[in-house]
Predict the 3D structure of the following.
Amino acid sequence: MKFNNILSETLNNITTITINRPTKLNALNKETIQELHLAFKNAEENSNTKVIIITGSGEKAFVAGADISEFVHFSVSEAENLASEGQTLLFDFIANLSTPVIAAINGFALGGGLELAMAAHFRVACDQAKMGLPEVSLGVIPGYGGTQRLPQLVGKGRAMEMIMTAGMIDAPTALNYGLVNHITTQEELLLLAQKIASKIIRNSSVAISSAIVAINAGYSASQNGYDAEVSQFGKCFGTADFREGTTAFLEKRRADFPGE
Ligand code: COA
């Protein structure tokens, strides 16, 4: 499929989606959000894709935020729609995918950019990356899940400070906060993400999707994470992957999961 603002490539069971508007620091305009939705949906439905990596093109930015030029004249109801549609189409959509999503933060991840990275299942960053939610400096607040996901990841006090000051944190601070899991050089960033992806790929994709459901349930106001864990745990016992994983262990060989 041909996209105007993103690139998508699948190799060795890893789909890499690259936001490709470097002259606008990969800012998320409406078309980019729609294309990202389609690219993630295609990857989720592609049985060849076991892990998705999301990154930005160029060396300067992962994503410098939502495209400010697009919403500057919005009314209250248009703004509500923008946030609600964006959350449904992209941010919640990514967070709830069955396929693991790793954000490789290759530069500025600001506003909607950091919210996109936080919607991924986990994050790695290059040592030059800068992260922040600067919305209050524009007279607005994060609208793509940032007020919820940032405190979940770094704790309430740090999230309050980051959001209130509109400041940026550097990669070592993000690592210290637990916002990113690992940092490395710009050159090694995708290699690191691919290395982690290749470890994930060896495991049962159906069990991983159950783990995502159970973990996410604990962060949802309407669900009980422990109940979700019980039901997903039980569900695993009905899968071919469980039969293969346990049989392979008893036969002292490496499991070859059918992914079913
Ligand atoms: N929306 C729309 N365009 C954006 C953008 C955004 N969020 N972030 C950057 N751009 C555009 C700039 O307008 C500029 O376009 P132009 O060359 O046509 O004028 C281009 O990307 C390069 O950005 P520039 O500001 O010149 O780069 P810089 O190196 O001086 O600064 C940043 C980099 C990231 C500090 C700065 O671009 C910035 O603060 N961006 C906005 C971040 C933000 O507030 N995001 C939250 C949005 S809710």
In short: The longest helix spans residues 76-95. The chain is about 50% helix and 15% strand.
